[in-house]
TrEMBL record:
Record keyword Oxidoreductase present: yes
Protein name: Pyruvate flavodoxin/ferredoxin oxidoreductase pyrimidine binding domain-containing protein
Signal peptide span: none
PANTHER family in alphabetical order: PYRUVATE-FLAVODOXIN OXIDOREDUCTASE-RELATED (PTHR32154:SF0)
Domain of life of the source: Eukaryota
Length: 120
């Protein structure tokens, strides 16, 4: 609630699992993720390993742009245990995205809100 109330850019990547049923259940019902719906955090869901990789970057870009915290979640057993080949996003492509004036300003605004000894 505090992070959402202060409009702090933040992303939590969550592997959702069933919490109310048998501990060995591989079929997640996402109760843990649904429990945070009322907190003011935006939510993004991924359904595959490639989507989880891509949406991780989307979540970070969106939180910087909107100053709203995000929960990025995916199935805690099937996706997190899947061995699959994915196409990685090139670091140069990520840097090119973050060097756009919109994100440079958002990153600077986020850093200016930080607490430090010279700027309490």
């Amino acid at each position: 609630y505090k992070i959402a109330g202060e409009l702090t850019p933040c992303v939590l990547h969550v592997t959702a699992r069933a919490i109310a049923k048998h501990a060995l259940s591989i079929f997640g019902d996402h109760q843990d993720v649904m429990a945070v719906r009322q907190t003011g955090w935006a939510m993004l869901c991924s359904h595959s390993v490639q989507e989880a990789h891509d949406m991780a970057l989307v979540a970070h870009l969106a939180t910087l742009r909107a100053s709203v915290p995000f929960v990025h979640f995916f199935d805690g057993f099937r996706t997190s245990h899947e061995i699959n080949t994915i196409e990685l996003i090139n670091n140069d492509d990520i840097k090119a995205l973050l060097n756009k004036p919109l994100y440079v300003d958002a990153i600077q605004h986020h850093r200016s809100r930080a607490l430090n000894p010279t700027h309490p």
